[in-house]
Structure formats: structure tokens, C-alpha cells
Amino acid sequence: MRQTKYMMSDGLAFSEEKDMEKLRRLSLKGWHVCDFKFMGYILEKGESSDYIYNLDYRSLEEGEEEEYFDLFLSSGWSHVASEAGIHLFRAEPGTKSIYSDLDTTAEKYKSSSDPMIKMAISLFFITALLWGGAIMSSGVLHSILFTAAVIFSVLVAIIAWTAIAQYSNKWKTEGKHRLASLGKMTLPLLLLIAVIIMFFVIETGYAIRILASMIIGGIALPIIIRGIISLHHIISKKTEENKR
Amino acid sequence: MKKSEHLTDSMFYIMAALTKPRHGYAIMSLIEETTGGIISIGPASMYTIIKKLLTQEWIYLHDGSDSRRKTYLLTENGREVLAEDVKLRKQMIQLAETGLKEVEE
């Protein structure tokens, strides 16, 4: 019987290397990654073997996949899974890394970050509109807009943070260590500024309410998502077993 | 286009292998063979650079009939860029060689 389990990623922009190390250790224990699943990986039970893993970010157009994957296969890297422009490869230990120079490694992080930055900017404008609407409206409409605005704010912050983290990876590759650590600090700094502005511009009670909803949202959302995925995975496995 | 734009080492090796039509893996093998395995290009770096050279129009798709192994060749422009870079690299080699000789004497 096919035995699978789910492993959550800590966010590739923040822990790509750690994730790849973890996948290697799990392969040694006989759990081999076979697919991506929302914010994580699906592992399949098999025989224990030593595999190393590498990731590439690239949006491939139609007709480009064959050449791309053949190039990797010829170099000893077999394709495991792809999702949303992220490609996971596996090889025997000792196989040379998929990136051989710093220039192209830096480009890898840049190309994964650019679409996220575009998304963050457009979402930022929507968020600003929602806040504007929430402040000017009242009653039920106000509650709806307020809730939407909070959710979108958290979303923009997460995407922007991820994009900046990828840029920090790029800077680190290029040897700009100070810029890289600054990049990783951006979000906490921005949050601090946002909180200060909130307390000065709007009344304190209102600001505390916004802040509290953001903190609760920020903590609860990942926990809920994690819970739902594990639950979904267990249920779909059960139904699969029942079918047999 | 800036002709004086400096090529990275990897770009230089790949362009040097594309004076004749070759596919990606053939380029990688040729570079490894030539340097006795000391220099090797990873597949992700290879793919990134091929795409870059195509947009710069320094190489072009020579034969795309085998979708797994498309072959590429330098354009006229690419040949000029490569020749310029060879000149630059020769100057640096000369500097090193004369310097080494002076010490020996």
C-alpha cells in the first residue's frame, strides 16, 4: 500500500537550504518527496536512500519543458515535481549543484521575487482603497470593509516580506551582507512604523482593535491552514484506503 | 547595444562553445572535456545563460526540430562580442605571463 505524509515548508524564501537538508534527511529515513502540496511537500514511504535536492525558480513557456528537464537529467538531476514556477530536482550525492556561478544564482532569486513584488504592489493599492472605504463608511458595510482591509493588509505584508527575503538571498549571493540583513529586518521595521502611525493618526481604542485583529489573524491563519491541510490529507488518505 | 559589456566567465565559455551549432548538454560536455573537468556549468546556470544570450541576440535557435535537444549558434553580433572579449582576456593573460617571466629572470 502506498504510504504518504505531509511536510510543511517554513517558506522557501526563508529556508530553502534548510528545507532541502530536511528532505535529504527524510530520504535517508525512507520518506521521499514526490510532490508539492499547498505550502509544503508530500512524502512517500519507500526504501531508504541518500538523495540530495535542489530547487529552481523559472516560469517555463509551452514547448520549453522538454529541453529544460532534459538538460537537468543529462547532468544527473531527475525532476521530482513542479508547481507555480518552482521546480524540485533530486540527484545522487556528489552531483554538481544546478547553479555553478554566483551571477546566475543571484538571477534565480531575482526572477522569483519580481512577480511577487508586482503582486504586492497591486494588492497594496486594493488594500489602501479598502481602508479608505472602511474609514468613510459605517454600519455593516464598515464591518465588511474593515475585515477585508485587515485580511488584505496581512496578505500584502506576507507577500512583500517573502519578496524582500528573496531579494536578501540575492544580495547575500552577491556578497552584499549588510543589505541582506537589512532586507530581512524590513518587515519588523515597517510594522513598527505602521503601529506608531496608527497610534498617532487614529484614536487609541480603534488602533488597538486593528492591531489585535492583525496579531490574531497573523497567528491564527497559519495554524488554521496547517490544521486544514493535515486534516485534508488524513481524510483523503482514508477515503483512498476505503476504495481499495 | 553596449558592445563593451563584459561577459561573465560562464557566458564566455558557453559562447566559445557556440562557434558551431550545439545543444545545451553538448556545450556542457565540451567545456568539461576541454578543461579536464575543472570547469563545469550546472544545468540551471546553463539554461539561464542560453535564455539571456537569446534575448541579447548573441546566439539564435539553429535547429529546434528536436524539442529535447535544441541547437544554438552565435549570431554575427555574438561573434563580434566574443572576439572583443577574447581580446580583453588576452590582454590580462599577457599581463600575467610577462609578470611571471620577469620574476623568473
From TrEMBL, chain A:
The chain crosses the membrane at residues 116-134, 140-164, 185-202, 208-229. It holds the Pfam family DUF2812. Keywords: Membrane, Transmembrane, Transmembrane helix. This is DUF2812 domain-containing protein. It comes from Oceanobacillus neutriphilus.
TrEMBL record, chain B:
It comes from the Bacteria. Pfam families: PadR (PF03551). Residues 19-84 form the Transcription regulator PadR N-terminal domain. This is PadR family transcriptional regulator. It comes from Oceanobacillus neutriphilus.
